[in-house]
Amino acid sequence: MGNNRRMPLLRRGDRGEAVRDLQARLTALGYAIDPAELGQFGPSTERAVREFQQRRQLLVDGVVGHDTWQDLVEAGYTLGDRTLYLRSPYQRGDDVRELQRALNVLGFDAGREDGIFGERTDRAVREFQRNVGLAPDGIVGATTIQALRRLRPVAPGPGRATVREMEALRRLSASLQGARIAIDPGHGPGDPGGVGPGGLTEAEATLLLAHELALELSRRGAAPFLLRDAHANPSVHDRARRANELGPEVLVAIHLNSHEDPPTEGAATYYFGTERWHSVAGQRLAGAIQTELCARLGLRDCGVHPKSIPILRETRMPAVQVEPCFVTNPREEALLRHPRFRRALAEAMAHGVERFFRGAAAQPGTSASGRG
User: How many CA atoms lie within 13 A of 80 on its CB side?
Assistant: First the structure.
């Protein structure tokens, strides 16, 4: 697939070999493409892309960018198609998800089932190999896969990664005092994101909101830090890498929503999830923040949803992406320009984070499968 980051966007009306490749991948995954559209990005191709994005918890826009293309490639792998092992860059794919799921159900902590073969998955593979009498080399080839399948790891209950996440919630302090909070203001210089009818950019507004949130969290005793400033625009992968290296208790990414219909309004919050499972902690953090935003500011409740976007998928702590307003809505854009409204948004988000810390430490619950 080459360098995914340099792959051009594919959208309705495009033609050529890249579109043929896209259609072949979609067809192989069971999506219907009108034969008359071969090599042409027409209505049935767009419909298939949207269905794929919906199923994979991606942004549903019918456009094939880096994230959608990456997921298309990953979806083409099943366990046994290739040899899996720890390497740099990490191997990614549905075969890795299948491996992680099997190991977790068997009690070997492979980490969250994110389809990324990292250090924790490597340790789980080696532990499994030792337990079944194989050389603990971390290489998942035919022999290791056969051993996994012989044990038939199909139990419906939570796997080891879910149990570990719930244990981490129990250990979480009920206070924000000293808690490290990563804040990621979306977009940046040269990448404005959404733009309001009055010219306010998502990049500008999210940075202002991030500073307000950092001040509010600091007032409550937390130790927040931003993953970008006004002069830098690191990739989302670099942001996730930095967050993982610094090891905060939680991460709050701030974005704004956009829509072609200007009256569309409201707040939504996202946490890491796939079609098979989701983060227990991320869902709780998202729910706490969303509740505070809507209750305190009277924002229209657009809900809490699982998403498999990079900032949520590639980070190792409970993480959410908060989209408190539509920058394309004239009224909400005007509100975002007012310091008092931004301060109120920051206070609501900080209340949500604080509520998460209190609630998670007090009663972690057991309702859903999550990431490790």
Answer: 7
Count how many Cα atoms sit within 13 Å of the Cα of residue 42 in the half-sphere of its side chain.
10
Q: DSSP secondary-structure letter at 132?
A: T
What is the SS3 assignment for 306? strand
pLDDT at residue 107, as a whole number: 87
Whether the bond into 89 is cis, omega within 30 of 0: yes
End-to-end CA distance of the chain: 29
The DSSP letter of residue 226 is E
* Residues in CB range of 219: below 8 A, 6 or more apart: none
> For residues 275 and 22, what is the distance between their CA atoms, to the nearest angstrom?
21
* 18/23 Cα distance (integer angstroms): 9
Strands 180-185 and 250-254, by their bridges, are parallel
Length of the chain as a residue count? 372
Over residues 266-301, the pLDDT tens digits come to: 999 999 998 877 888 999 999 999 999 999 999 999
Rounded to an integer, what distance in angstroms lies between the CA atom of residue 62 and that of residue 264? 19
Contact 308, 348 (CB under 8 A): no
The structure tokens listed for 286 are 């998202």
Rounded (10°) angle between helices 43-55 and 17-28 = 50
Distance between CA atoms of residues 246 and 237, nearest Å:
14
